[in-house]
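Input record, target 12 of the design panel.
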């Protein structure tokens, strides 16, 4: 079986969707995968093998993102003439979905699977697609099958008129990485590198530094707490967030770590006490699942796909949207009530163990591609 993947971004430019592609395709050995993606910085190889996927990069930089639907379709048509694909797989209803839609119209006998990973709010997407709403809805409607990573996104597909087979299959967690135990010497070395004393309580978050992820709310929330805060990730709001931390007087207690790879992330989680991300919108949020697997209690808003895994007082604590005072209160609860903290850690890990195994997820996606 041969499958062509459309994804706007891929390694080395990775977020939750790109991690999911890699984890799933690495576990499916009896399907031949090709991928068309954008050469986002113009510096990547135009063709290379990554795991089980042959990657073809087209375009260059920002312009390449906007021309992707047309150029990806042209490339796909060329590859299909050689390889005769059994299915195409669009990861997200963005430019990748538009390319897959064009392909489906040209080759209606080829199965079209759409995976929904979007974390943006419905209002944000609606604003960005006002000029092409009918075509945007067709990304959903013309799909033969849809995989949504959360109930929230499955309901969005129905709202846009999709009536075909629809499965909610979440993203997973690499248990071998995030449940790994480190020696006290290793953890002490990581704390020392960050200038943390043995008695410091640590709040951590891991995300892109964009408005929807609410990092500004964390900075405001920790103002009156005796904690050190680690902000892991990069993004367009880095300078603005650093300025905010300076402005409200917490810059000395807030460290902007920047982007770190998945190999390093578990150690940063293991030296922390609470994981916080008061998202304004969220498709699912693999960073929460990784924190739960690593043994951290989670504070999050009940938006988007988060309620699929976070039950208030059971697998985590929910906080109000756009309310840093409530974020403060929930962090205080976890720092002062160790029995509650341990309960959330235990239940959170049990949930991830049951629902977020990449091997089982890959098997379910494979059935959709068949």
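The sequence produced for target 12 reads:
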């Amino acid at each position: 079986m041969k499958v062509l993947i459309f994804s706007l971004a891929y390694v080395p430019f990775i977020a939750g969707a790109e991690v999911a592609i890699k984890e799933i395709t690495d576990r499916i050995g009896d399907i031949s995968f090709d991928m068309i993606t954008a050469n986002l910085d113009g510096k990547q190889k135009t063709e290379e093998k990554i795991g089980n996927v042959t990657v073809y990069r087209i375009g260059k930089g920002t312009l390449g993102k906007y021309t992707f639907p047309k150029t990806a379709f042209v490339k796909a048509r060329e590859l299909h003439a050689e390889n005769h694909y059994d299915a195409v797989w669009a990861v997200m209803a963005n430019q990748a979905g538009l390319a897959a839609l064009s392909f489906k119209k040209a080759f209606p006998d080829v199965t079209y699977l759409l995976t929904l990973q979007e974390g943006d709010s419905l209002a944000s997407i609606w604003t960005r697609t006002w000029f092409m709403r009918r075509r945007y809805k067709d990304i959903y409607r013309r799909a033969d099958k849809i995989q949504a990573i959360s109930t929230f996104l499955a309901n969005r597909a129905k709202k846009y008129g999709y009536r075909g087979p629809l499965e909610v299959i979440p993203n997973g967690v690499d248990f071998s990485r995030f449940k790994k135990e480190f020696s006290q010497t290793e953890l002490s070395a990581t704390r020392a590198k960050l200038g943390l004393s043995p008695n410091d309580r640590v709040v951590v978050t891991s995300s892109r530094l964009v408005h929807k992820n609410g990092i500004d709310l964390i900075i405001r929330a920790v103002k009156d707490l005796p904690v050190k805060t680690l902000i892991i990730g990069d993004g367009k709001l880095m300078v603005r967030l650093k300025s905010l931390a300076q402005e409200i007087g917490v810059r000395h207690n807030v460290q902007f770590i920047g982007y770190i790879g998945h190999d390093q992330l578990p150690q940063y989680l293991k030296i922390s006490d609470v994981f916080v991300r008061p998202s304004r919108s969220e498709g699912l949020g693999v960073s929460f699942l990784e924190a739960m697997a690593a043994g951290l209690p989670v504070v999050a808003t009940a938006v988007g796909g988060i309620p699929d895994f976070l039950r208030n007082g059971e697998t985590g604590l929910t906080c109000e949207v756009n309310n840093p005072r409530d974020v403060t209160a929930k962090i205080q609860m976890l720092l002062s009530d160790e029995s509650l903290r341990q309960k959330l850690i235990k239940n959170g890990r049990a949930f991830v163990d049951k629902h977020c195994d990449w091997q089982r997820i890959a098997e379910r996606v494979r059935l959709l591609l068949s």
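The mean pLDDT is 93.
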